[in-house]
Amino acid sequence: MGHPGVFRGSRFTFLVSEKPAYKAGVDGGYTADALSKIQSRYFKRYPVELAMDQEPTPEFLSSVDDEAPDEEQIEPDQDKLSPEEYIAEVERLKERTLLITIRKAVS
């Protein structure tokens, strides 16, 4: 029996539904662009802060706007935060970046 993978529930359903878009990208020679668009759509539905075993609400999923620009990561401003707050924000940003990298690698 093969490994069932890490994506379950609506995440799995979403990724399977994106197979035709990915195949079109491969066939059309724009694989990287197709994958980037799929990943953008995925992270709009399943924010990295959402645990992998947690499903978004149907209301949240129906409110997703694929045409909206992706949120930019804002670097913490050391001048506006206490040293402790700054360190905590830098660590949060590092962890978020790592989670995004991991999830992109397994998708």
Count of distinct structural domains? 2
Global Rg:
17 Å
How would you state the average pLDDT, rounded? 89
Fraction in beta strands: under 5%
The overall strand count is: 0
Q: How many DSSP helices? A: 5
Poorly predicted runs are: none
Which H/E pattern describes the elements? HHHHH
Helix content: 55-70%
Helix/strand class: mainly alpha
Distance between the termini: 20 Å
Biggest sheet descriptor = none
Describe the overall structure.
With 107 residues, the chain is mainly α. The protein has two domains: 71 residues, no CATH class; 36 residues. It is 60% helix and 0% strand. It is built from five helices and no strands. The radius of gyration is 17 Å and the shape is globular. The mean pLDDT is 89.
Q: How are the SSEs ordered, and which strands pair?
A:
Elements: H1 9-17, H2 19-28, H3 31-45, H4 58-63, H5 83-106
Helix pairs in contact: 2-3
What labels would you give this structure?
5 helices, single chain, mainly alpha, 107 residues
